[in-house]
Specification:
Layout (H helix, E strand, L loop, with lengths): L33 E4 L8 H11 L2 E7 L1 H6 L7 E6 L2 E6 L7 H10 L1 H11 L5 E7 L4 E3 L20 H19 L22
Parallel strand pairs: 1-2, 4-6
Antiparallel strand pairs: 2-5, 3-4
Length: 202
């Protein structure tokens, strides 16, 4: 089980390698295309994270909660706020899991229920950052001096209600598939599937 991925079991129905994105165990240029969906925001070293993606792949897709959503509805395991401006990833290191407690209290008191139960399920991409890249990842860490290597607090309750988590997990998977393979191009899946696993490892 993994707490960060909506507490659902990891399904290993194909060759699987577990590791840290900041130190991937693959050779240079091993992949044509990589997908980092809801992973970057967990990194304490985003520069190294993105450098490794560029090292092992020629292109890819990155998705995270948008910085706005992360600020008003922070996760205890997220170390970054990420948004997109003029084709560039803007990364802000979080000095703690909840940088603005007053804002979160205001959001939870008045807006959380309609946002999570109505707005996000209907318009998930308005609350998520989506970024396609090829060759190089354009990004800026706006506060590189901030230390975001803090330990995640131990919490006895989940950040979101289980029913909402299940709805988002189902709808999110469906929308991500559309985002990665746009209808206008419909590239064959084989273009994004790596060769045999043994040749990929360092």
């Amino acid at each position: 089980m993994t707490r960060e991925r909506h507490w659902t079991p990891l399904v290993a129905d194909r060759p699987t390698v577990l590791g840290f994105v900041e130190n991937l165990p693959f050779r240079d240029g091993a992949f044509d295309f990589v997908i980092a969906s809801h992973v970057l925001e967990h990194s304490a070293d985003p520069a190294r994270f993105l450098a490794e993606l560029q090292r092992v792949a020629r292109a890819g897709y990155i998705e995270t909660p948008d910085a706005f959503m992360e600020r008003i509805n922070p996760y205890r395991d997220h170390r970054l706020e990420v948004t997109l401006r003029n084709g560039k990833l803007m990364l802000r290191k979080k000095p703690e899991w909840c940088p603005d407690r007053e804002l979160v209290e205001l959001y939870e008191y008045r807006a959380k229920q309609p946002v999570t139960q109505e707005l996000i399920p209907e318009r998930p991409f308005a609350f998520h950052m989506r970024y396609f890249w090829e060759g190089n990842i354009a990004y800026e860490v706006v506060n590189p001096e901030t230390d975001n290597s803090w330990l995640s607090p131990v919490d006895g309750v989940r950040t979101h209600a289980p029913r909402f988590e299940a709805r988002m997990a189902r709808s999110h998977a469906r929308f991500v598939a559309v985002a990665v393979f746009p209808a206008r191009s419909q590239p064959p899946l084989r273009h994004f599937v790596a060769p045999a696993m043994p040749g990929l490892l360092r």
